Amino acid sequence: MKLITPLIIIGICVAAYFTYISKTVDDISILSSTKSSYEAVLKKADEVAVKRDQLFKDYDGISKANIEKLNKVIPEMFNSVLFANDINAMASRNNLVVKDFKIDPKRTEERDVMLTQKKEAPYKTAIVTFRLIGQYDKFIKFLTDVESSLRLIDVTKLSIKTVGGQRATDDSLEYSLEMNTYSLK
Question: What is the pTM assigned to this prediction?
Answer without folding.
Answer: 0.56
